[in-house]
Amino acid sequence: MTSVTDVSPARPAFRLTRAFQGLERLIVPALLIAGWEAFARSGMLPPALLPAPSAVLHALGDWVFGFDETTQTYSGHWLRDALASALRVFGGFALASLLGILAGVAIGWSRLFEKTLEPTLQMLRPIPPVSWIPLAIIWFGIADKPAIFLVFLGAFFPVLMNSIHGVKTVDHNLVRAGAMMGANGRQMLTDIVLPAALPSIFAGLRIAVGSAWMLTVTAEMVAVKSGLGYVLWDSYYFLRYDIVLAAMISIGLLGYLSDLGLKAIMARTLHWQQTTTVQGRAG
Amino acid sequence: MAAIELRNIVKVFSDKRRGRDLLTLDNINLDIEANDFVCLLGPSGCGKSTLLNIIAGFEQATSGRTLVDGKQVERPGSDRGVVFQQPTLMPWLTAIDNIAFHLKLKGVAKAERYDRAMEFIDLVGLRGFEHHHPSEMSGGMNQRVGIARALLMNPSVILMDEPFAALDAQTKLEMQEELVAIWQKRRCTIVFVTHSVDEALVLGNKIVVMTRRPGRIREAVNFDLPRPRDITSPEFNDAKRHILALIREESTRLAQAS
């Protein structure tokens, strides 16, 4: 009976810990931003070279809502720029996912594809996507296509590698169990190998969506006249570092949101997978 | 005609790294009658699992013939249900979908699949857990799903490779009792691989004692003690003494040879 009374004094402390848990994630960013703001206002560097967080926020606010035209021609155009970038990222990522999964599963599953296709793809893999820019421009001209192509190059290889790995590491006994239950070759692939490889394929997709956003600036620097990457590079020419930073933040935020979306799809698709991490069960 | 006929089975594994061949099964001859509960008993590495895999069609014998219901075994098939050492369920499927997986592969509609699988859910005592995923169930429950999955195919033989080895002692006892009950109720042929003398004596009505590598059949002991078997009865202990003597004789022979 004493054990019941023993528990109650601990409760308020427990509530405090929980309240603190929400805040603890904010401590490091808050300190960093406060330090940055203080340093920028101290006047050790000209404000044009290191804009204060408040100035960046102001620029971002005007770029999004267009309230006082501090960002001049970009004022109020954020949504259009974000959408332009997002469409390129989505296009390149979708293409990379489709071809990456198809090629990866084929290479992982069949010795024939492994021998014929894989060496070529592995040779193309170390070539930096940026170095394709000259060819991309001759092949696709100046529009969305070369940008999508670059994004595709960045996103394709993570999907490919993880799909190959996922198929190759499918538990041998699951394949035996499938054969025992009478699965034919096609069923073995669609009903056993593919679902078993999904966790690995999703890991590849998450890396790929990050790479896709990473390549937007590179792609939009050269070939197009719109998008977050284009605004970033254009603002650099006018020494508007506040807009440069606002564009960096926007890309980071959209990349983060894409990853969250992908994670949500993954959690729904792989709901059967209850992973136990070192910190306990993860949803 | 016996349900399973093994004729002069020889299996040689070639160890490429060391550049030598390893004789694993040396001229195995065995007839297993329909509705027999046969336990393959032997020490680790004696090739008993290899023999089971050859019957299942997962592995090919180097020479010799394997016949199930008079037909030569060439590949795995649903006429031979296999229960693996680990449950080996599809982790993305629920218990009922795992049990009915064979029907799904055959293109049977969902309602009928579930209808037929429910019978086996009840048989292995998993009612209430049919929509659980393997990750949400214990090892023993998953192994029940594995057994139900093999039974649903209505195979002519069921091959079990130390299916209870990973379970705790109490769950193992329960599962052994249930397996015997299922075997008595459904009258099927079971080949059960084990390294435990007690397990073989609790389950089998024919105990095939195998020798250490290269695997040969030392003796096939018929054991018709009525069930439920009293593991403290004189008959049980007589049989156990006989089998232990066979095994001991074998290790003495090995000790003298070396």
UniProtKB/TrEMBL annotation, chain A:
Keywords: Cell membrane, Membrane, Transmembrane, Transmembrane helix, Transport. One of its GO terms (biological process) is alkanesulfonate transmembrane transport. Signal peptide: none annotated. It is found in: Cell membrane. The chain crosses the membrane at residues 89-112, 124-142, 148-167, 188-215, 235-257. It is a multi-pass membrane protein. Residues 82-266 form the ABC transmembrane type-1 domain. Its main location: membrane. The keyword Hydrolase does not apply. GO terms for cellular component: plasma membrane. SUPFAM superfamilies: MetI-like (SSF161098). Belongs to the binding-protein-dependent transport system permease family. Probably part of an ABC transporter complex. Probably responsible for the translocation of the substrate across the membrane. This is ABC transporter permease. It comes from Bradyrhizobium forestalis.
UniProtKB/TrEMBL annotation, chain B:
PROSITE patterns: ABC_TRANSPORTER_2 (PS50893). The keyword Nuclease does not apply. Pfam families: ABC_tran. Keywords: ATP-binding, Nucleotide-binding, Transport. GO terms for molecular function: ATP binding; ATP hydrolysis activity. Residues 4-237 form the ABC transporter domain. Gene3D superfamilies: P-loop containing nucleotide triphosphate hydrolases. The keyword Ribonucleoprotein does not apply. It comes from the Bacteria. CDD domains: ABC_NrtD_SsuB_transporters. Belongs to the ABC transporter superfamily. Involved in beta-(1-->2)glucan export. Transmembrane domains (TMD) form a pore in the inner membrane and the ATP-binding domain (NBD) is responsible for energy generation. This is ABC transporter ATP-binding protein. It comes from Bradyrhizobium forestalis. The lineage of its organism: Bacteria, Pseudomonadati, Pseudomonadota, Alphaproteobacteria, Hyphomicrobiales.
